Amino acid sequence: MTVRPIRLLGDPVLRTPADPVTSFDANLRRLIDDLLETTDMDGRAGVAAPQIGVSLRVFSYSVDGDLGYVVNPRLVRTEGLQDGDEGCLSLPGLWFPTERGSEATVTGVDADGKPITVEGDGLMARCLQHETDHLDGIVYIDRLKGRTRKSALRAIREAAE
Predict the structure, then answer these.
(1) Is the pLDDT of residue 161 over 90?
(2) Helices (H), 12-108
(3) Average pLDDT for residues 125-140, to the nearest whole number?
(4) Which CATH architecture best describes the domain 12-160?
(5) Quick check: is 131 catalytic?
(6) What is the rounded CA–CA span in Å between residue 79 and residue 85?
(7) Measuring CA to CA, which residue among 103, 107, 110, 143 is closest to residue 124?
(8) pLDDT digits over 99-127, tens only?
(9) Which SS3 state, helix, strand or coil, does residue 43 take?
(10) Residue 108 and residue 110: Cα distance in Å, rounded?
(11) b/e map of 52-89 (b: 16 or more CB within 10 Å)?
């Protein structure tokens, strides 16, 4: 297992929809192990495979002591609304208020191709939505609107200087 470096905004892998996993083999197990190791650090709620440079539909999560992963996830339900600060390892140090569902459910499979469901509220719901977005080539700043979006884009430009 290896803690992998996080790709930063500007890397094309973050803007490219990830490919579905079709081979459930030792390479997938290594990827999952690396994702879990990379996620299981202070201040990290989740990591999607594209964030470590792998364009496959897999993400890991670590919320409230619950460490896990989902292969080929699909966001199948969101309910309610939460509006709180959200950040991303691919945009270090930047946090902006982002609307998300207050509850979320993701379905997918495990490393053996067996169906799994992960659901949660609060931070877990935010994580499930955020990581699924990464697999679709969406970064959370794409969800921002109005003045918040303008502030975020300005902060990103300033951080790049």
Answers:
(1) no
(2) 26-39
(3) 98
(4) Alpha-Beta Complex (3.90)
(5) yes
(6) 18
(7) 103
(8) 999 999 999 999 999 999 999 999 999 99
(9) coil
(10) 7
(11) bebebbbbbbbbeeeebbbbbbebeeeeeebeeebbbb
Set 103, 131, 158, 161: catalytic member: 131
Q: What angle do CA 48, 9, 89 make, to 5 degrees?
A: 50
From CA 160, how far away is CA 112, in angstroms rounded? Answer: 41
Query: Do 20 and 57 contact (CB within 8 A), yes or no?
Result: yes
Q: Token pair for residue 118? A: 């992960």
Rounded to an integer, what distance in angstroms lies between the CA atom of residue 34 and that of residue 124? Answer: 20
Give 122-154 as a DSSP string: THHHHHHHHHHHHHTT--GGGG--HHHHHHHHH
Number of H helices, E strands in the chain: 3, 7
User: What would the mean pLDDT of 31-45 be, rounded to a whole number?
Assistant: 95
Element (H, E) at 115: strand 115-121
Domain coordinates of the chain in residue numbers? 12-160
List, for residues 70-81, the tens digit of each pLDDT value: 999 999 999 999
